[in-house]
């Protein structure tokens, strides 16, 4: 796979405006990235700008805290897919996971996967808030629920992707799920280190620089 197809070209800042989303999409087409990752209100803009390309529209759900009700997340995910999203990156309920309520976490992910159907579902575990034991449990919950990816981070919490976390997540999910590293991947060396650790997708706002270098 060529390097550009590892990249989810990302812009999730709350102050992002239409022109910036359009620019993001033009860059994604130019560099042939896997997707653009945006907030759901920009689905229509991204779909229009990416029409005729093979760049997917990825959206975030329950973002960035993951603390919404399951019903709210399911509606948000279903609505995003209806509006044209190809991929959904959801934040799991970190507090429930840390409480040991894996049944809740698994059930929520499963319901969201049912809502998005054949569309790709990535589960953001927010690894910077978890112990290694909790990271493993989060990955196992995502596997049990039928998700497609586990993802390290939102990029909006205390830390981003680390090689340690990507390796641990990949060791846990094996070939059953894919791993996305997101948050803080800015240099070619970091990019390659994440791939070597097992990441099959990289979420970054520095995709153009990474591919150019």
From TrEMBL:
It is found in: Cytoplasm. NCBIfam families: deoC (TIGR00126). This is Deoxyribose-phosphate aldolase. Belongs to the DeoC/FbaB aldolase family. DeoC type 1 subfamily. SUPFAM superfamilies: Aldolase. Its EC number is 4.1.2.4. It comes from the Bacteria. GO terms for biological process: 2-deoxyribose 1-phosphate catabolic process; carbohydrate catabolic process; deoxyribonucleotide catabolic process. Keywords: Cytoplasm, Lyase, Schiff base. GO terms for molecular function: deoxyribose-phosphate aldolase activity. The keyword Transmembrane helix does not apply. The gene is deoC. Gene3D superfamilies: Aldolase class I. SMART domains: DeoC. The lineage of its organism: Bacteria, Bacillati, Bacillota, Erysipelotrichia, Erysipelotrichales. Pathway: Carbohydrate degradation; 2-deoxy-D-ribose 1-phosphate degradation; D-glyceraldehyde 3-phosphate and acetaldehyde from 2-deoxy-alpha-D-ribose 1-phosphate: step 2/2. InterPro entries: Aldolase_TIM (IPR013785), DeoC (IPR011343), DeoC/FbaB/LacD_aldolase (IPR002915), DeoC_typeI (IPR028581). One of its GO terms (cellular component) is cytoplasm. Catalyzes a reversible aldol reaction between acetaldehyde and D-glyceraldehyde 3-phosphate to generate 2-deoxy-D-ribose 5-phosphate. The active site is at residues 89, 151, 180. It catalyses: 2-deoxy-D-ribose 5-phosphate = D-glyceraldehyde 3-phosphate + acetaldehyde.
